[in-house]
Structures are given as C-alpha cells and as structure tokens.
Design brief:
Elements lengths: L16 H11 L6 E5 L12 E2 L9 E2 L3 E4 L13 E4 L4 E4 L11 E4 L4 E4 L2 E4 L9 E2 L10 E3 L7 H9 L4 E5 L3 E6 L4 E2 L10 E2 L2 H12 L2 E4 L7 H14 L2 E5 L10 H8 L1 E5 L3 E2 L5 E5 L2 E6 L3 H11 L1 H8 L8 E6 L3 E2 L5 E11 L2 E6 L8 H5 L2 E5 L5 E2 L4 E6 L3 H6 E6 L4 H12 L4 E6 L2 H9 L5 E4 L11 H7 L5 E15 L10 H6 L3 E5 L4 H12 L13 E2 L2 H9 L4 E6 H6 L3 E15 H4 L2 H10 L2 H10 L2 E3 L6 E2 L1
Parallel strand pairs: 13-16, 13-17, 14-15, 17-21, 19-24, 22-25, 29-30, 29-31, 33-34, 33-35
Antiparallel strand pairs: 1-12, 2-11, 3-10, 4-6, 4-7, 5-9, 8-9, 18-20, 20-21, 22-28, 23-27, 24-25, 24-26, 26-28, 31-36, 32-35, 32-36, 32-37, 32-38
Helix pairs in contact: 3-6, 4-5, 10-18, 10-19
C-alpha cells in the first residue's frame, strides 16, 4: 500500500473548553454494562441497580447488655426499700450481649443492677420498663428495605451493611475499559539505556493510574511509532475492544502529528484545539461508536486534558457526578499575567504565613512534570481576565489538604541541596511537618520575608564593598522589622566544568577569553552576585561572557547544563558538581544563612527547625554530600 503524505495541519479552532467537553459527552452514548461480584470485594465500585436487604439485622430480638431477661410487669413492685426477689427460669434467665430474648420476656436488666442471693435467686431494687436494653428485630436493617440506590459508590461501612443483610453478591457497573496508546519515535521504556533524542515513556503509566483512580479499567498499549499505518492499526484495534480510547502525542501541528488526519479518515473529529493554557492541542473525535481523545505529549498539558475530557466520560459511564476539589481563598504573592480569550491553569505553591494563605505560581511550562508534583493547588484564570495583581485575593482548587498546607514551613530563597535533607529529617521527627521550598534566589527570598510570604529564606548575599555576607542586605531591606539571621552553613562556591576541564578554565577571565558557554544563575541569586563581583574585579563586562543572559534557577540546573555541553562552565556548589560527575575548582568560601522573622524564630516550628539543624542525624547527612560544614551552636543575629 502506498504511503499517504500528510500536510502539516494547524488547529481547527480555539474552542472553549466547556463547549468541547459538552460535545464529547453528548457523543459518548455507550450503554452501561453490569457485573456481579462478591460484596466483600466491592469497595469503591458503583452499584448498577438498587440493593435490597435479604434479612433483617438483627433478625431476632437480641439483648443489648449482659444481664437478665425478665417480663417487665414482674418487676414493677421493686423498690430500694422493698427489694424484689426473682426466681431463675420462672421469672428470669441470664443473657449476654447479642443473645436471643426468649418470647416470654420483654426487658433486660443489666448485670450491674442485680444482686445474686443464691444460685437460683436474684434481687433487684428498680423496676424494668418494657423493651429496655433489647435490640428489636430490624432495629438496624429491615428485610426488603433498600440499602442503596443504583449509582452509589460502596464504602467500607457499606460492605458491612451488605453482609449483615446477607447480600453476598452485588451488581456493580462494569468498569469502562480505557485503552491508552503512547506514540512517538523518541519514546523508550524506563528500563532502557538513554541516549540523545530518547525520552522515557511515563505518561502512559500516569494516565493508567488516573483512569483507575476515577473508576475505569486502563489498558496501556505498547509504544506505537510515529508511522501512520501503525497508528491507524492501533486505533482500529482499540475501538473494537475498548469503551474509550486515549492516544498520547501527535495531537499538535508538527510534521509527524498524524492523529487528527487518521481520525478524520476513520471517523469524525469534533475538536482540534481548545482555548486553554496549557493543553491547547487536544483532539476529540469518534471512530465507529467509540470516543477517541488525543492529548498532547507534554506531561502537564496531557494530565489536564485527561482530567477535562476523559474523567467526565468515565463518570458518565459509571453514572456518578464528577468529583470536585475543595477550594481556598489565597493572597497572591506575585503578579500573574494571562492571555485574553484562553483559560489559564496555573500551578501554585501555597503557604500559611502570619495567619494568611499566600500562593505563588510554579513554572508554567507545559513539560515540567514536577510543577504538578510540587503544586499545592491550581488557579484557573478565566478567559475574560488578563491576569491578577500581586496581593489580589483569588480562589484556588486544592491538591492537598488544608491542614497539610498549614503545617508546612515555607522556604524561599537560594537553592541548596541541604534543604531537602533538612525537610526529610524534619519529617522523620514530626510527621505532621515538612518544608515546602521555592528556589527563587537570595534577594527574592529576602523580599519574601519582608512581604510576609515565607517563614524562612536561605541567603548568601556578598556585599562587594565590605566583603561581608548577608548582614548589609538585611539591614537595608528589612529596616524596622524584627528579623533574625541564623548562621547555617559554611560552603564552597567554585567552577563547575566538564570532566577533565578540556579548555583549561581556572578563572573568570578564562571563561571570557576562551569563549566558554556560561550557565548563569537568575538575577538576585547570591551566586550571580558573586560572579558579577569577579567580573568587575577582572575588569570584564557581561557582554564578554557567552550565555550571561541565560538564567538557571538552581545549582543542579547549572550542573546539568554543564554536563550536557563540553564547552560549558558554571559557578556553583561542590555537591551539585559531584552529583553530575563534573570537575570542580574552588573559588570562594561563603556563608549560607537562614533569615526569619523573630516571631517565627521563636515559634514552635522555628524551635523544631533549629533542633533538627543541630541534630547529629542531620549533620551526618550533610557531611556525606561534602563541601559543607553546619555551623555549630550558632549565635543568631537580631535586627
């Protein structure tokens, strides 16, 4: 068969997400199927029809206490001044909790309220009332009553009710089978050896677990190459065996994005492109009677598109409403710019600082998976908004419980590998606490403390005039505020260079004269301030350094850049260089300190944080990575 040549295709439209969702839901008209399964293993399943009790619970009159069963009328004369004696088997019998009540009796007296006279005689001083301490037939469940309607999601207690009513099998909605087809010539499995141009296929696993979490039955298809015939074959096979089909990648407008063409050939395309950021290149269509959802290759775009268009289909099939996340009002710590006409979905970090929930945006790049991993919530900017200003109060959808957010220590400022170790050690000692860190540079961290948007800031700001670290900057920018500078680490900054230092770089002058590609840190980072000082002392300008304007936001990012380019160089800390197997030439020793408000420093969280820093376990962890020394029993500096 001759190969078909497909022309690159632009988006059909920027369709509003709600309209696209409603159209695909209307097109999804599969009949719900049911299956019978053991009640004991039906947790989380959706009932396919009403469930009725087969027996009452209890199915006999049962004693609710340990004691004696009596006829209440036989006890009416009992009084503390006229104790009443009863004879066993004539006027009472002993019963334990749960025992059947003989038909001639209608009350139970607790064992604590009887006095044993002899083996056959007891004494009471209070009368019983009819049906006291007796569980009547059907007190809990009455035979033939409806336990659950159809469309009910079974919970742990529900399974107990089923078994108590002698319902041992239950009809549930069969889980919709969702086939997930990853596509791409560059994709390899996680256990493959990597080379340039190869990417680990992980979206399929994430999709599968989302589908399972929503109540579907996922099938992850083997990777399909970017070849039209193979994609066509996979789609035709999937629509025969599945209820819903998801195809990953190939949904955009690239030269090898074939999905929309093949969908048009085999069926119908409703939508190619929705008005969202991220997640725009979505394809919604139908082959035969099965809905096909084409989602982008970038992880964040893909996960959101899956939630927007696949979750509603699964819920419709199961006959349940879509779940909604709890929402929280937060104060924005930074300005957020959006584009008119498109919904913007911004992943947010949220902290609870000084009695206020403060939220800051994470990276908005559609390919950064960790922005979702680290996100505490999601801000949806409507298409009619151009964004929000710093300090605005907005509503976010929560990814984490409010209490978890409240208990977190919000860390801002310069990146350092020890902060992750500190968070881990803190979590070991206090399971309800953790550190949420944002790597924004020393100056931005200092300003976060000033604006009340963080609990702790890591800073290493060198004053070019005094050659003193941090104190000058705190005095200048936090004048009038009660702040505390806590000496934390002594660490070494140095040149991070490709293995073997092929260009013989030993100084800032070498970086300029030998044309190295410099991996710089962002404005306000302490490392950048140090580099700028070295440039100035060497009589050099930023224009003489290749790559000066390209910014990295962590030491590891700089190290990764150097590792991937034999002509690169960067300034950073030794552990980052070691992590990437780079050469390291020491340049300067520096103080990396923690800045806090006095209120936080003296709070329970602040005290816990300092105790962990000074613990032997934390110091041992820091010693393992090298290039550091934790300051022993430091004297805090109050401002």
């Amino acid at each position: 068969m001759d190969k078909i040549r497909y022309n690159r295709k632009i988006y059909l439209e920027d369709k509003p997400r709600a309209k696209a969702r409603n159209e695909v839901l209307a097109a999804f008209d599969l009949s719900q199927e049911k299956e019978w399964i053991p009640a004991a293993s039906a947790l989380g399943r959706i009932t396919a029809e009403p469930v009725f009790a087969n027996v009452s619970m209890p199915f006999y009159h049962a004693s609710a206490m340990d004691g004696i069963a009596v006829n209440a009328e036989d006890t009416y004369e009992a009084h503390e001044q006229r104790p009443l004696h009863l004879k066993m088997d004539e006027q009472f019998v002993y019963v334990d909790t749960g025992n059947a009540i003989p038909p001639q009796y209608n009350a139970v007296i607790m064992v604590e309220n009887i006095q044993v006279i002899d083996d056959e005689t007891i004494e009471i001083i209070e009368p019983a009332t009819p049906w006291q301490h007796i569980r009547p037939i059907g007190e809990d469940i009455v035979q033939e009553e409806m336990l659950f309607t159809q469309g009910h999601q079974l919970r742990p207690a529900d399974l107990g009710a089923l078994l108590a009513a002698q319902v041992t099998e239950v009809a549930v909605v069969k889980k919709p089978l969702v086939t997930i087809i990853p596509t791409g010539n560059e994709l390899v499995s996680a256990d493959s050896s990597l080379s340039s141009g190869r990417i680990i296929e992980f979206n399929g696993t994430v999709f599968s677990n989302y589908v399972e979490d929503w109540g579907g039955n996922p099938y992850l298809h083997p990777i399909v190459k970017d070849e039209p015939e193979k994609i066509r074959e996979a789609l035709l096979e999937a629509v025969e065996t599945s209820d819903i089909v998801v195809i990953n990648a190939g949904s955009s407008a690239g030269s090898k994005d074939y999905t929309v063409h093949i969908l048009e050939e085999l069926g119908t395309v409703f939508t190619h492109g929705v008005a969202t950021r991220p997640g725009k290149p979505v394809i919604l269509g139908k082959i035969k009677d099965k809905v096909v959802v084409g989602v982008p290759g970038y992880p964040v775009s893909a996960y959101m598109a899956l939630e927007w268009f696949v979750r509603p289909l699964v819920c419709k099939y199961l006959g349940i409403p879509e779940p909604e996340r709890p929402k929280l009002e937060v104060k924005l710590g930074r300005r957020i710019v959006s584009t008119m006409g498109a919904e913007d979905f911004v992943r947010m970090n949220i902290g609870y600082v000084n009695g206020q929930f403060v939220a800051n945006p994470l990276t908005r790049a559609a390919g950064v998976t960790m922005s979702l991993v680290r996100a505490d919530g999601l801000l949806v900017v409507p298409p009619e908004e151009l964004g929000y200003e710093q300090g605005d109060i907005v509503e976010v959808e929560l990814y984490r419980p409010v209490e978890e957010i409240k208990n977190a220590i919000v860390f801002s400022g310069s990146h350092d590998l020890t902060i992750d170790l500190l968070s881990s050690q803190l979590k070991r000692q206090r399971t309800d606490m953790k550190i949420v860190s944002s790597h924004v540079g020393s100056m931005a961290g200092l300003m976060a403390i000033r604006k009340g948007e963080a609990h702790v800031a890591g800073i290493h700001l060198l004053d070019p005039e005094t050659k003193e670290y941090n104190v000058t900057y705190v005095k200048k920018f936090l004048a009038g505020q009660d702040a505390v500078l806590y000496p934390f680490l002594k660490r070494t900054q140095g040149w991070m260079l490709p293995k073997g230092n092929p260009h013989g770089i030993e100084s800032v002058s070498d970086i300029a004269s030998k044309g190295a590609d410099y991996a710089n840190r962002q404005k306000g980072a302490g490392t950048r301030i140090l580099f700028d000082l070295m440039l100035k002392e060497a009589g050099l300008s930023a224009d003489e350094v290749n790559g000066y304007d390209r910014e990295m936001f962590s030491h590891l990012s700089v190290a990764a850049e150097v590792k991937g380019n034999d002509n690169a160089a960067g300034l950073g800390i030794f552990p980052a260089a070691r992590a990437m197997s780079l050469d390291f030439i020491p340049v300067a020793d520096e103080n990396y300190d923690l800045l806090m408000t006095k209120a936080f420093f003296e709070s329970e969280k602040g005290i816990w944080l300092r105790s962990v820093i000074q613990s032997q376990a934390f110091k041992a962890e820091v010693a393992k990575i090298g290039g550091y020394a934790v300051v022993e029993n430091p004297e805090p500096v109050y401002f």
